[in-house]
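[retry 2/3] Putative 5,10-methylenetetrahydromethanopterin reductase: previous attempt timed out, resubmitting with same input.
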Amino acid sequence: MAANTAKIHNLGFGFLGHHPVEELTELVRTAEELGFTSAWIAEDYFYAGAFSLASAVARSTEKIQLGIGVINPYTRHPVLSAMESAALDTVSKGRAIIGIGAANKLWIEIRMGMPYSKPITATRECVEIIKGLVGQGKLTYHGSVFQVEGVELEFQPYRRDLPVYMGVKGDKALFQAGQAADGVLISAGCTLEYIPYARDLIAQGARSVGRNPDELRLAAYLPTCIRPTHQEAVDAMRPFVRRYLGLHGDKPILTCAGFDPAVLRPFREAFLAGETCPNEVTDEMVEKIVVAGTADECRARILDYMAAGVEMPVCFEVGGDESPLEQLKSIHAHLLAD
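[retry 2/3] Putative 5,10-methylenetetrahydromethanopterin reductase: success.
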């Protein structure tokens, strides 16, 4: 069979939030030099904050887009998030993309003592406040979670149309993203079959408020592992997939691919209990949840995601025996180099 040499466009890379600032800056600078078009920085508790990391990176790069993927609506009031988002966009000269997601009850309520109330509504209201304040400069907003009364930015944003995405995966959240956000960032561990499912819900939400669904962008974290043989890649990704089986459980992001919910539930139950599920992570699970295989197989898989509607594929840091720098160079050599 002939190798698939089709070009992968608009490929980004997602970084975990635990890197020291000097290391992350060098990694993103390398990603820019290698031709990645976006770098996404996760805000992982309890490491350095994403805005500080992204601002440092912005001063050492020139053209790569800088995605915040993602912050939550609770630990910063949405007005503060709007201030920081506009400031980052200014520092980066219009390269910022802001991702908002609900985080989780463990971090917000159990660890930090803040009520984890109405996560979908809070996420949407945060998006609306950021877009309203940056876009208009002055805002009064009465939501069910957040209230803003006559707040005005005291500086000029670099762009009034700063893009704000929602990092969500549930049906109601995807629908509301279509109503309010500029795009959606799909979580790592999403199956290919989930992409059209998600796009349909986003489109329904957009049309419900008179928006054109084609104007919303879809990005997706795609954990990618390239190895000389298919089985080597699958075996390397098994621990990563075990974690994401627990993170997602029996939700459409996995069940759209035909997985039996009864098989998925033990992984979720163990994850919530802080334990590791001993059940087998099959080759099929790995093959459907991440991008793993030879260079040709990984290229074909990413192109399949793009054909399904992902406009911004974002290879994602996977850890294990390959450093982020090695992963960047491998993906460049096999998928981006001419």
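[retry 2/3] Putative 5,10-methylenetetrahydromethanopterin reductase: The chain has a mean pLDDT of 95.
[retry 2/3] clearing retry counter.
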